[in-house]
Amino acid sequence: xxxxxxxxxxxxxxxxxxxxxxxxxxxxxxxxxxxxxxxxxxxxxxxxxxxxxxxxxxxxxxxxxxxxxxxxxxxxxxxxxxxxxxxxxxxxxxxxxxxx
Length: 100
What we know:
Blueprint: H1 4-8, H2 31-41, H3 46-55, H4 68-77, H5 84-99
Helix pairs in contact: 3-5
């Protein structure tokens, strides 16, 4: 897992599973988005990627395993979040505690 500094300065991108793939492949529609999301699922920097997209309100493409529609919904449901990395990490920790 990366430290918070790595997520903040953008270096997480160099460690993503997608680093050697065509970036255009992440800006697709419909069923193709599900295929892209599967690539993200096993990525070691998925959380950092998603937090960056949410913090910067990136409108298009699949980021951190979420489509633009999924990210918009998350932003609407949690308008007070100012640090998405922290919020997502907290949610992941709670989830891991429940699944044991």
